[in-house]
UniProtKB/TrEMBL annotation:
Claim: Transferase is one of the keywords in the record: yes
Uppermost EC category: transferase
Entry keyword set: Glycosyltransferase, Transferase
Protein name from the UniProt record: Glycosyltransferase
Entry coiled-coil feature ranges: none
Organism: Erythranthe guttata (Yellow monkey flower)
Pfam families to which the protein is assigned, alphabetical: UDPGT
Highest taxon of source: Eukaryota
Similarity field: Belongs to the UDP-glycosyltransferase family.
E.C. no: 2.4.1.-
InterPro entries: UDP_glucos_trans, UDP_glycos_trans_CS
Length: 473
């Protein structure tokens, strides 16, 4: 008897760990739970620093997953933001993507691709898939809140007369969302005069044309937002399928020392401090942070990247950064003197394993959505210190909506002072406020576990999407 032919999914991977991790996890589920085969089409923007981590991620994926590397597109000017570079690369990669999808169709036994899935930066590639009669989906790797904001942005753009959204007299109130002040809107929308803003509005218009949008969140985390999106018949179908995070590993080599240090600390006593894969502070801010952590007399594990004003090379070439001499000396002294803190002068920490460690009692985070989900599934409460992208909106959700985070406030000089850092660290790890936030986080953790259980909302939602894809003629 002939073996049943596997349905096939094509996924576009764009640079940036925040997108790569959830997309590869989605692929893992589609292969393991729904018997799809998956081909990754990998966009090379010519400069990104995530290549090594991408290789590691791809090596851990199950069969049958294949990958195709698109050639880097020509003619991208040097001086633009990393996000704009990725979006421009996706637009200019249209012809090579069309060829890759056409060749892929020809090469698979069914001659049929059941769905094409792109992350939010790949939105302009959905047109290419549609031309080839492939259902085109977006995987939104952030909150339903940011998705809803993005879907409403074109209307806000038309109706709003202010020069800058930060001048809006009132916080924006969208159906099902915590009110958001203009100054907390996601980064590219901050300056309405820029090309990045215009591009962002254009991208958000395109979101509505997707055949469906998968979201790395779960219904019980943002029920009002999902309900409001569901009731709006001008929106594409929205599918909450999260939290999809990288599973922990027992074979950690990089950063093993910090896990060994954690093994020696009491339960829930350590504040983990990290600003994600790209977040960096200035030298002054890093000094202030370290002083504040020491003043707090709490245990801490700090992932310290070279301060951005100590770097000597372009931010796109991470491997080539010179280490900041102060940071190296200070790390060695700190760790040798067995202070209460452990400093990991690292480009890459074993974050999933750290957050799952029983000694970790709090997380000072830049509010990247993957980091946040990793904290939620481990029930770790937060200090929210948003830096870029949509992180300020995430901080609003976490501190004002879900109330599982205390948010830092910058002084007029743009620096978060040591006294504040010290107080927040103490409040979170040993204060009453920390206890309340921890209990709320544990409830969210239970919600996440329920959503991913066999009958859970996210598992069922993904099963429904998979069925739809299987049935695509
Ligand atoms: N990450 C990690 N080690 C690091 C920095 C980041 O494992 O030193 C992982 C982290 O666990 C998360 C992802 O990289 O899964 C970062 O994604 P997030 O959305 O939090 O922030 P981004 O880096 O995209 O701003």
């Amino acid at each position: 008897m002939e073996a049943p032919q596997q349905a096939h999914i094509a996924m576009l991977l764009t640079p940036g760990m925040g997108h790569l991790i959830p997309l590869t996890e989605l692929a893992r589920k589609l292969v393991h739970l729904h018997s799809f085969s998956v081909t990754f089409i990998i966009l090379d923007d010519g400069v990104s620093s995530t290549k090594t981590q991408l290789q590691t991620l791809l090596q851990t994926l199950p069969n049958p997953t294949n990958s195709i590397l698109l050639p880097p597109p020509p003619d991208i000017a040097g001086d633009i933001t990393a996000e704009s570079r990725v979006v421009l690369s996706t637009i200019r990669s249209g012809p090579s993507l069309r060829k890759a999808l056409t060749d892929l169709k020809e090469s698979i036994p069914t001659r049929r691709i059941s769905a094409f899935v792109a992350d939010l930066f790949g939105i302009f590639t959905l047109d290419v898939a549609k031309e080839l009669d492939i259902p085109a989906y977006l995987f939104f790797t952030s909150t339903a809140m940011t998705l809803s904001f993005s879907l409403h942005l074109p209307e806000l753009h038309e109706s709003s007369t202010c020069d800058q959204y930060r001048d809006l007299p009132e916080p924006l109130k969208l159906p099902g969302l915590v009110p958001v002040r203009g100054s907390d809107f996601m980064d590219p929308t901050q300056d309405r005069k820029t090309d990045a803003y215009k591009g962002c509005v254009e991208m958000c218009r395109k979101y509505r044309l997707a055949d469906g949008i998968l979201v790395n969140s779960f219904f019980d985390l943002e029920p009002d937002t999902f309900n409001a999106l569901d009731q709006n018949n001008r929106m594409p179908p929205i599918y909450p399928i999260g939290p999809l995070i990288r599973p922990g590993s027992k074979n950690i080599k990089d950063g093993l020392k910090c896990l060994e240090w954690l093994d020696k600390q009491p339960l829930c006593s350590v504040l983990y401090v990290s600003f994600g894969s790209e977040g960096t502070l200035s030298r002054d801010q890093l000094n202030e942070l370290v002083s504040g952590l020491r003043m707090s007399e709490q245990r801490f594990l700090l992932v310290a990247k070279t301060p951005r004003d100590c770097r000597t090379r372009s931010s796109h070439h991470d491997d080539e950064y010179d280490q900041c001499a102060e940071l190296t000396e200070w790390t060695t002294n700190n760790n040798n003197n067995k202070e209460k803190g452990f400093v990991l002068p690292s480009k890459w920490a074993p974050q999933v394993e750290i957050l799952a460690h029983v000694a970790v009692g709090g997380f000072l985070t830049h509010c990247g959505w993957n980091s946040t989900l990793e904290s939620i599934v481990n029930g770790v409460p937060l200090i929210a210190w948003p830096l870029y992208a949509e992180q300020k909106m995430n901080a609003v959700l976490l501190s004002e909506g879900l109330k599982v985070a205390i948010r830092v406030t910058e002084g007029e000089n743009g620096i978060v002072g040591r006294e504040q850092i010290s107080r927040l660290a103490r409040d979170l790890i040993e204060g009453e406020e920390g206890e309340v936030l921890r209990k709320r986080m544990w409830n969210l953790k239970e919600g996440a576990t329920r959503a991913l259980s066999q009958d859970g909302s996210s598992t069922q939602t993904l099963a429904n999407v998979a069925k739809k894809w299987m049935e695509h003629p």
